[in-house]
Each structure stands twice: as structure tokens, then as C-alpha cells.
Amino acid sequence: MREATASAPATSANLGPGFDSFGICFEKPMDRVWVRRTRGSGVAIKVSGRGARGIPRDPERNTAGRAALAVMRLAGAETGLEIRVWKGVRPGSGLGSSAASAAAAAVATARLLGLRVGKEELIGAAAEGEAAAAGDPHADNVAPAILGGFTIVRSLRPVEVIRLRPPSRMRLVAALPDVVVNTAYARKILPREIPLHMMVENVGHASTMVAALLKGDLELFGSAMRDEVVEPVRAKLIPGFEDVRGAALSAGAVAATVSGSGPAVLAVADAARCSPARVGRAMERAFEGHRLRCEVVVSGVGRGALAS
Amino acid sequence: MREATASAPATSANLGPGFDSFGICFEKPMDRVWVRRTRGSGVAIKVSGRGARGIPRDPERNTAGRAALAVMRLAGAETGLEIRVWKGVRPGSGLGSSAASAAAAAVATARLLGLRVGKEELIGAAAEGEAAAAGDPHADNVAPAILGGFTIVRSLRPVEVIRLRPPSRMRLVAALPDVVVNTAYARKILPREIPLHMMVENVGHASTMVAALLKGDLELFGSAMRDEVVEPVRAKLIPGFEDVRGAALSAGAVAATVSGSGPAVLAVADAARCSPARVGRAMERAFEGHRLRCEVVVSGVGRGALAS
Question: Which residues make Cβ contacts (< 8 Å) with residue B14, sequence separation at least 6?
């Protein structure tokens, strides 16, 4: 095959107590990555679409480039590569923008090279791509971007991921305010040590979320989406966070939290019990009350990356 | 009603990453508690059965007495009480001996007083009883002792518990060596603070266990029963722990860990894939290799306390 294309959607990591472990996949927006074999051994990258200007083109510093290189190593392939990335997911939004590029690049490159490996290997390669953006490889966004649904990353080396299928009436509502949160900084301000009782609480909440998902109980899922470890620290970087969360809950969302490292706020809604669009408008108005314009995404739970 | 009786079985708390949160109910052994109204307002306690001699009779220091008093407060009842506890669960074994007495006492007293409350209130009362043994109320043993199955204690105040039904082929194999572990000491030696990454690992493992349970995948359940926070500290109090765990796994168990604060070692086995009795014998022999006699319990997952 001379060329291949894949798309991968936005994702939201953490979901409260599942820091660095839980992730969920949107249906949209998506990044698209097109790859083509070229002569020689160089990797050339072009980026267009949302926020393209700020994205590095150096293959080692570009998440799509680095993911493609990881797949090439997996395949033992030596070829030049041309990569074109079209960004649909806004960079720096907290919606897994770099993961969407890395996941799409991994899937497209595997297709191009005819590489037949399990999805966990592809997640591993995409997680390497994430290291270009975050410094360390991590899989809490690329796992749901590739597998779809709700994912639990149990282990990164080797990659071990559990995928769960949320009830079809679950809706994700993300409000992206016009502020910039630096991912590296959002990680740096986290506590290095935490009191043991906080681990106990998060294990209890996270386990409850998983049980609720498998029982199809979105109310219970939302009530357990609580975190006192990471969320309070990151919420401070988002002006009006508490008001936005309050607005989402008042409009019928079952829970709201910081999406990844922010600034997006993720609300979870049960489409059978409230209007997800109304939740989105309420969050938008709450941000406006803090003089922040914001963009709202309302989505079902997505099925992950697609090669085409 | 003038008198009432209830029984409650042994339980195992923690199950690896679920410290202070996860618990599971045995079918046997059991404690039995008989309560009777008496004149006046005093509470008189008699204890017989296994390890009865070491158990305090003062109602405030006896778990059954304190649980009964908590139920009386819930009911707004003022009566004298005679309580007889028959111990089937060996005290200080790590199999929820005090919880079995507290749970049976709470259920029997509620029945005696005609108190109609939810099981979560009864768990709260029994958890008060646990404070007599442990200093603080906790519910990780009384929750499964009352509800049966596998339980997640999300919150103690108010009591919020999720109950899951493990696959019927799950077997619990406990090996109780002849050593004494002081529960208060086993708690005191725990770290007060832990690195953030350990929380991430335990959240991932614990969530995976819950997902595995609901998917009926005992292999996955066992592979996620890992903990680097509490288990390594408590395992040191059990001579030969690593050998006993190794023996259980070699005999076909899916996992083994410290039961509660020990000294019992809990193995989980899939009766469709191995002989749980053989797992028990292997654990017994491993303890013998460390010159420790031990008692083995092989049980299905129990249904919790029963009033009769």
C-alpha cells in the first residue's frame, strides 16, 4: 500500500477519580491523518486545521510523527514517510487533541505498512507519540481514541487496557473556554504524595463508576465521579469552574469535572432524563458570567479510531 | 418480640488494591448472636465458642454489644438487653471475626426491636460496633457480612455500599496460620502518605477487578488483585507469605493476598478450572515449611447475615 488514512476522535481523560487511568471517547470532533511512503528515510509532516500553527513539525516533537515512528519500529520497516495531519480537535483544550493525532497516525501507519498487531500494541505506539506533547508516554487518551467507549488503562508497560461500553443514552458535553492551560504545568502542580485516605476514597469512587457503567446506572456513575486529589488543583486554572459545574448539574447533568488537564469542563448527561444541549448552553452561560467565551461540544460516546 | 437470633459469616477485606473499600463474604464459618429484652437498661454479654476467652464483655468494648447499642439508638428504644455471642469465626484471624459478631448483633437486635430500616443503616450500626475492636468505625467487613457477595464501601458517613454478585464458580480459600497479628498495629504501620502514582495503580487495578467481576472473568479479576501500598507492609507480619501465595498460584488459584490485616492469606480460585481444596492443601504445606500449623477454609461466596 502506498498511502493510508485514519481518523481518531476527541477524548476526555481522568473523569474524576480515574486520574491517568480512565478515559472516554467522543464521536466528534476528530483528527484525520494521511500517510504516504516516500523514498529515503526522512519523515515530513504537514499540519492543517484547528490550531495547526502552534504544532511542531519536527517528527520527534510531533505526536503524529512520533507515533508513526513507533509503528515503523514495531513493523521493522524502513521507509521515508509523508504525514499530513488535519486537526479537528483544538490543541490545548483538554480533549485529547495530541492523542487524536497520535492515535490516527498509529492506525494509518499500521495500515500503510500492513502491520497486523493487537490494538494494545497500537495504543503503546500512540502512547509513545503522546510523549512528544507531554514528556512521558501516557495512554489515558490514546486508549479510548483507539478503542472507543470507556477505557481503564491498567498498565502502560506492557499496555493493558479494559474497554467498557457505556449505555447508549450517555452523552458527553464539553465546554471549552477561551483560556490556555499548559499540560506540563497542569501536571507539575499535582501533589507528589497524597494521604492514604485519599487513595481509599478514589478507589471506592472509581470502582463504583465502573460498577455503575456495567449496571447501566448513569445516576450512580455521576454520583461517584468525585475526586479530591487532582480536580481541585486543576480546577483553579479554570476561571469559574465551580459555577460551570453547578450550571451543568442544575441543567440535569449527572456530573461534571475537569476534562484531562483542562481547560475543558466535561459534563456527563443521561439523554433519557435531560437535554444535553441545554446542559451545554447552561455551561456556556456560566463561562460568559466570568467573561469567557466558550465552545460547546455535545456528543455520544464514540467508537474510536477508523482506518479508511 | 422477646428474643431474636441472627448469624453472620466470615469476610475478607481489602482484596489487594481495595484497602478499606472492598470486601467479600464467605459462606462459612459464622458467628451467631442471640438477643433478649431484659428489664432495666443494662446490657449483659456472654461469649462462647472460638477464642471466646479473649473477648471483652463490657458492652462498649464488645463489638456485638456496641452494634446492638447503635441499633437501639436508631430505634429510639430503651430496654435492657441480654446478648449471647457464639463465635465460629476465630478472633484475630483476618477473616472479619469482630465484624461477624457486630453484623449478627445488629441484625438480631433490629429484628428484636421490630426496627425497619435499610441495610445501609444496619451496616452503619455494625460499623459502630467495629469501632470497639479497631478504634474507628469501618465497614469493609460488616458490609459484606450483612449484604453478602462482593462489596464496595464508597462512603462511611453516610454509609454507601455497592454490592456485586461474583460468578458462582468463585471459591475463597483462606489459610489461617497460628500467629497473632494485632489489628491496631497492622493499621499503625501503614504509610500515612503515598506517592501519587501508587494511587493511580490501585485505582486501575481495583477498577479492573470490578469490571472483571461483572464480566464474569475470574482470570482477569485475579490478575488485577495487586497492591503495592498495604500488602507489602502487612505481608511482613506473616512468616512465609510469599511462599504461601506462590503455592496457591501454582495450585491454580487466580490470586492470593493478605486477608484484611492478616494473618490469614486469602486465595481466590475458579472451581471450573482448579481444585480449591488442592489450593488449600498447597497453602497449608507452604506454611508448614515455615513451621506454622494452619487451618484452611474453603468456601463459596456467601449471602450474608441471616435473621432466624
Answer: B20, B21, B22, B23, B140, B227, B230, B231, B257, B258, B259, B260
Interface residue of B192, B196, B228 to substitute, partner A, most A CBs within 10 Å: B196
Fold of B3-165: Ribosomal Protein S5; domain 2 (3.30.230)
**ipTM score assigned to the predicted complex:** 0.94
Is the link from the previous residue into B276 a cis peptide, with omega within 30 of 0? no
Query: CA–CA separation, A267 vs B272, rounded Å?
Result: 42
* Cβ–Cβ below 8 Å for B20 and A200: yes
CB A85 within 8 A of CB A47: yes
Phi and psi of B166, rounded to 5°? -65, 160
Q: Which residues, in sequence order, are CB contacts of B236 under 8 Å at separation 6+?
A: none
User: If residue A281 lies in a helix (H) or strand (E), which one and from where to where?
Assistant: helix A276-288
Q: Read off the pLDDT of residues B259-270 as tens digits, 9 standing for 90 and up.
A: 999 999 999 999
| Catalytic residue flag (residue B130) | yes
- Tens-digit pLDDT profile for residues A23-49: 999 999 999 999 999 998 899 999 999
| Catalytic annotation, pick one of B5, B11, B183, B208 | B183
Q: Which of A263, A298, A107 is nearest to A185 (CA)?
A: A263
For chain B, domain boundaries: 3-165, 170-300
Query: Strands B170-177 and B265-270, how do they pair?
Result: antiparallel
Please judge whether B203 and A203 are an interchain contact, meaning their C-beta atoms are less than 8 angstroms apart: yes
**What are the residues of chain A with a beta carbon less than 8 Å away from any beta carbon of chain B?**
17-22, 152-155, 162, 164, 190-200, 202-212, 214-215, 220, 224, 229
Which chain B residues have a beta carbon less than 8 Å from that of A195?
192-193
Task: For residues B208 and B189, give the distance between their C-alpha atoms in angstroms, rounded to a whole number.
Answer: 27
CATH topology of domain B170-300: Alpha-Beta Plaits (3.30.70)
